Amino acid sequence: MEWTAFFTFVLISSHTPGPNIIFAMNTARVHGFTGALPLTVGMITGLLIVMTACAAFNLVLAALLPAMLPWLRIAGAAYIMWLAWKIAFPKSAPSGEGEAIPEAPGFRQGFFLQFLNPKVILFGLTTLSAFILPWTTSRAWLFGGGIFLALACFSGVMTWTAVGAIQKRVFKRQGRAVDAVMGALLAWCAYSVSGLGPL
């Protein structure tokens, strides 16, 4: 197995911004690190299920993926656009003194995002099929690889959640501008996974 290539790919893929990271970072920016914990626990739970499903059904999913990918992209892009809208235009801005802060997204939102996040699913399928399956077809290695990938993604989410918590202190007065930037980044994620680029 190409261990150096494997760990490099996993580190870069799991720590570069995507829907999970941007959503968790913005939630921590608005609600603090502890306020984002229910969301991140939902994310790791969903990640574990998605990654172990990728491990268990890697060959079957790889065969079905071409037919499923357009629908997965549309559903994922629609959900990410909804997240972008909620972040860019919150019910009340978090920066004002007496203004109410909208309720933090919780476990359910973090959990279900994983099943509509093409980046996570493609990451699991690609990594397991490109690095582990050519080396071994052992179920233990595939299952362990799936758990490792989920934990690597969770590490990226928690790292950026901490960055969001730091932003909460730094960008208190720029709340609306940061909301707009975060919403725009998520909208860009939605566009990039939608498959509309080549059209």
What descriptors fit this protein?
199 residues, mainly alpha, 8 helices, 0% strand
Can you characterise this structure?
By secondary structure, this protein is mainly α. It has one domain. The chain has 8 helices and no strands. It has helices at 3-15, 19-35, 37-56, 58-88, 107-113, 118-132, 139-170, 175-194. Helix 3 crosses helix 6, helix 4 runs antiparallel to helix 8 and helix 6 packs across helix 7.
Total individual domains: 1
- Mean pLDDT comes to 81
Low-confidence stretches: 93-97
Number of strands: 0
Annotation field: number of helices: 8
- Basic shape: globular
Order of helices and strands: HHHHHHHH
Report the span from N to C terminus.
37 Å
Compute the CA-based radius of gyration. 17 Å
Question: Into which percentage range does the β-strand content fall?
Answer: under 5%
Oligomer: single chain
Biggest beta-sheet profile: none
Structural class: mainly alpha
| Fraction of residues in H or I helices | over 70%
Structure summary:
The chain is mainly α and 199 residues long. The chain has eight helices and no strands. It has helices at residues 3-15, 19-35, 37-56, 58-88, 107-113, 118-132, 139-170, 175-194.
Topology:
Blueprint (H helix, E strand, L loop, with lengths): L2 H13 L3 H17 L1 H20 L1 H31 L18 H7 L4 H15 L6 H32 L4 H20 L5
Helix pairs in contact: 1-7, 2-3, 2-7, 2-8, 3-5, 3-6, 3-7, 4-6, 4-8, 6-7
